[in-house]
Amino acid sequence: MSKEITRLVLLAHGHLGSPFDLLHVAETFAPLGFVVAAPEFADSVSGGVTPSGAAADRGAVVDAVIQRFQADGFETSLFLGHSKGGGTAVRTALQSRWRLGRVCICADDAADYRGQDPLLTIASQGDTTFTSDWAAFFQSIKRQAAGGLYAGAGGAAELAADLNPPRMSALLFTPPDPDVPLPSHVSFIDSRVSAALVRVGRPLFPLARCLGVDVLGLDTFANRPDGDACSAMVLPAIVRWAESRK
Questions:
Q1: Which residues, 6+ apart, have CB-to-CB distance to 42 below 8 Å?
Q2: What is the pTM of this model?
Q3: What is the dihedral of CA 149, 150, 152, 155, to 10 degrees?
Q4: How many beta carbons lie within 10 A of that of residue 154, not counting itself?
Q5: Which residue intervals of 32-167 are DSSP H helices?
Q6: What is the pLDDT of residues 131-177, one digit of tens each?
Q7: Distance, CA of 103 to CA of 101 (rounded, Å)
Q8: Nearest C-alpha neighbor of 24 from the set 70, 66, 82, 63
């Protein structure tokens, strides 16, 4: 394993997701001189079940991955997760001996963050997993990221241009944002993955609506595929915040 690249970015997918969900993040950081590790957790889509015992311990997987890379001289710079992966990035902060920047995307765990590591929270009111608790979540993040609160598309551009963003920062998409419709839960994962999920799931959307099953914005994405536009806004902001943590 080459030691010319020594900075590590660790990615964590959500429940019933896969490492490919954050492929666009990996493709962004790798050319910048980072090595990217994206472990597949036991509750991935290929597993299809919620495991129990040691296999269910995401923290143990994270710890093992970081330990393996640091033994080879790598410095872990960033831990980024989406959905349950965002929760993993937040919850492991209190248990971990590793000090690193953390990015929590689309997970309300960020509101209860008590760790000492820097944290960037990214969330959208258009994400149906936040609908019932958004107001309380917003107020918690507003207090947590005082001085580092960025709003909507304009806020993403502001954060991407900030030479010294606060260690506790948040990028929140709330109405009204005249520059962009509110992203959904799946707007933040790789658009190629979202498109594939739509192709598979589209026939089931009417049944899901009848049963009141939340499809996490895939039905919205089917009519308004915004993954690439969301990535174009969010990824430069994440990179700027991550680089400032060096």
A1: 51, 55, 56, 61
A2: 0.90
A3: 170
A4: 14
A5: 58-71, 84-91, 134-144, 152-161
A6: 668 989 999 999 999 889 999 999 999 999 999 999 999 999 998 77
A7: 7
A8: 82
